[in-house]
Design brief:
The complex is a heterodimer. Chain A is an alpha/beta fold. Chain A has 12 helices and 14 strands. Chain A folds into 2 domains: 219 residues, P-loop containing nucleotide triphosphate hydrolases (Rossmann fold), CATH 3.40.50.300; 71 residues, YebC, transcriptional regulation domain (Alpha-Beta Plaits, 2-Layer Sandwich), CATH 3.30.70. In chain A, the strands form 3 sheets. Chain A has a 6-stranded mixed sheet, sandwiched between helices. In chain A, strands 2-1-4-5 form a 4-stranded antiparallel sheet. Chain A has a 4-stranded antiparallel sheet with strand order 12-13-11-14, with helices on one face. In chain A, helix 3 packs across helix 4 and helix 8 packs across helix 11. Helices cover 77% and strands 0% of the residues of chain B. The chains are: A alpha/beta, B mainly alpha. The complex binds adenosine-5'-diphosphate (ADP) and magnesium ion. Chain B: Belongs to the ABC-2 integral membrane protein family.
Chain lengths: 326, 267
């Protein structure tokens, strides 16, 4: 079966900035693909090209078998997209927003209304559905926007940073909604800055940096490359940093990071909580004062540090400037 | 559905969306109704008692001018709304839908015609209260109103073009004010343009706003044989030239706005 989403050598330049620098993607039908990368990596640009909003300078891409440039018109009936900024009309009610989208998909008045009702129910917005969107919380807007992308039951779905800016509870709520959705067989490409989100939702992850895919694989494969969990220790004396690094070396499954300003040591370990217990035992023998100690999952920063040797810092400030002008 | 049916259906959907927005946030409608009422009353009572016109009362003379002022300001809502929508992601949503791309601008401009119709009706009623009268046949009067609406529709496309080129609401508002002020005051809206001094007179007589106002006055019969006849060509054939202006504006600005829309949303 041909992939639901296929991209070859996509290039997009904005003046001097190369937003996409030869990006290749291949997403099998019915799977969830996570595009993971820091701000400015080129995620939105890739999604905009795949959803026909933008033409690539070079390369080609097909979605659901349609060329994103040559067949853009026909492609649009086969995709649903929810952008980085919830595309909902503030003055319209939730129901009106969805009905409008249904009409623009040419579903007809009756079916548009019916579909709107179904979706409001599914996204837990029945009560809010008759109120103008103006008064919605961030999570509700996001859910409504997602519902808008689903009006025509598209086989391929694009979600650009669906949970950025949401509080943790709303984020988990949206994850549940998305998981349920893809259980029905929809192909989904989602972008995110959070390793945890990609881990939770995606079958396969591509890590992007500077407009290029720098690593790909399942969450487990990537985490193996990155090393498992991190033990993070904070000390009071800078001299202790080196002592701890040496003492815990047997546990480390990758490069141990020491940060003299934050007085922190970060050790990648293989066995999570068991490693933490071991570490505490080993440190008991040393004469160091540990102020704080904790275990955390690898973050995007860890992935980047490992894969690129540099931290996942946002590139340029053009991204921010653009976001403000919206 | 064929392409034309799609475009019409989508245009109606977008018009309905914009109408709902006005219903929910009636501040714009307020602006389009209240401001013209204030204009009619202000000019009728303040200037109406000072300015003398040979053969016609100033109140009657001025009302068609106020109509045009109101629609020139009303058309700016098109531009302003577009700049606001550009800020949000809503056009991205529209563009990933299999809808006719022209529907966004058609829906926006049509909705403004509805709003302008409302404000003209209100102004006409207030005008009748303060002594404005139609002295022509019903046919000519209807023609007068249609001509005003046609011009307002065309002018909406001008403001849409400007808005899509400027793209920020604040900048658009400033530019719209700076441009529309001279357009309205360097004309025959409030004064008889033939009595203006040299260069001002030429500008005022060739100003399309003057032509529309002159056409409306002719079609409503708010002129008088005692008024000096201008020898400027657009004012002597005001009705025809008004239609020509409106058609010309549409021919230039519809494609221009459509191009700019595509450019503005595919960044
Ligand atoms: N419209 C634009 N004009 C100029 N530069 C842009 C524009 N859109 C994106 N960029 C630049 O392209 C790069 C990639 O941006 P983007 O695709 O938005 O990244 P992400 O979504 O991963 O944060 C960034 O450096 C950004 O500044
Ligand atoms: Mg982005």
């Amino acid at each position: 079966m041909p992939p639901a989403i296929m991209a070859e050598g996509l290039v997009k330049k904005y003046g001097h900035v190369t937003a996409l620098d030869g990006m290749d993607l291949s997403v099998p039908e019915g799977t969830v693909f996570g595009l993971l990368g820091p701000n400015g990596a080129g995620k939105t640009t890739a999604v905009r090209i795949l959803t026909t909003l933008l033409k690539p300078d070079a390369g080609r891409a097909t979605v659901a078998g349609f060329d994103v440039v040559g067949d853009a018109r026909r492609l649009r009936s086969h995709i649903g997209a929810s952008g980085q900024y919830a595309a909902v009309d503030d003055h319209l009610t939730g129901a009106e927003n969805l009905e409008m989208v249904g009409r623009l998909y040419h579903l007809g008045t009756k079916q548009s209304k019916e579909r709107a009702r179904e979706l409001l129910e599914r996204f837990d917005l029945v009560e809010a559905g008759s109120r103008p969107v103006q008064g919605y919380s961030g999570g509700m807007r996001r859910r409504l926007d997602l519902a808008g992308a689903l009006v025509a039951n598209p086989p391929v779905l694009f979600l650009d940073e669906p949970t950025t800016g949401l509080d943790p509870r709303a984020r988990v709520g949206l994850w549940d909604v998305i998981s349920e959705l893809v259980a029905g067989g929809t192909t989904l490409l989602l972008t995110t800055q959070y390793m945890e989100e990609a881990d939770r939702l995606a079958d396969e992850i591509a890590v992007v940096d500077h407009g290029r895919v720098i690593a790909r694989g399942t969450a487990d494969e990537l985490k193996d490359q990155v090393g498992g969990d991190r033990i993070e220790l904070t000390v009071t004396n800078e001299a202790d940093l080196e002592t701890i690094r040496r003492a815990l070396a047997p546990l480390a499954v990758g490069d141990t990071q020491t940060d003299a300003t934050a007085l922190q040591v970060t050790v990648p370990v293989a066995h999570g909580a068991a490693s933490l217990t071991d570490a505490l035992g080993m440190l008991a023998a040393e004469r160091v004062t540990v102020r704080d100690v904790g275990l955390r999952r690898p973050t995007l920063d860890d992935v980047f540090l490992t894969l690129t040797g540099h931290e996942a810092t946002a590139r340029e400030n053009a991204t921010n400037a653009k976001e403000h002008s919206r | 559905m064929n392409a034309l049916q799609t475009a019409i259906a989508d245009g109606v959907t977008i018009t309905r969306r914009n109408a709902l927005k006005i219903k929910r946030a009636p501040d714009q409608l307020g602006g389009a109704v209240i401001l013209p009422i204030v204009f009619v009353l202000l000019f009728a009572y303040v200037f109406g008692s000072m300015i003398e016109m040979p053969g016609v009362s100033y109140r009657e003379y001025m009302v068609p001018g106020v109509f045009v002022v109101a629609i020139v300001s009303g058309a700016q809502i098109t531009g302003y709304t577009l700049t606001l929508d550009l800020r949000k992601g809503i056009f991205d949503r529209f563009r990933t839908l299999p809808m006719a791309p022209s529907a966004v601008l058609i829906g926006q401009t049509l909705c403004d015609v509805l709003m302008n119709l409302t404000s003209i009706v209100v102004m006409a009623l207030v005008g009748l209260l303060v002594g404005w009268r139609i002295h022509t046949t019903p046919y000519e009067a209807v023609m007068g109103f249609l001509l005003l609406l046609f011009f307002s529709y065309a002018f909406s496309w001008v403001t849409a073009t400007v808005a899509l080129a400027l793209r920020t609401p604040e900048v658009f508002n400033n530019v719209a004010t700076v441009v529309s002020m001279p357009l309205m005051f360097l004309s025959n809206v409030f004064v008889d343009s033939s009595r203006l001094p040299g260069p001002l007179k030429a500008v005022a007589e060739w100003n399309p706003v003057s032509t529309i106002v002159q056409a409306a006055r002719t079609l409503f019969g708010n002129t008088s044989p005692a008024l000096p006849v201008s020898d400027a060509w657009p004012l002597r054939h005001a009705v025809e030239v008004s239609l020509l202006w409106s058609a010309l504006i549409l021919a230039v600005f519809v494609p221009l706005a459509t191009r700019l829309y595509k450019k503005a949303v595919s960044r």
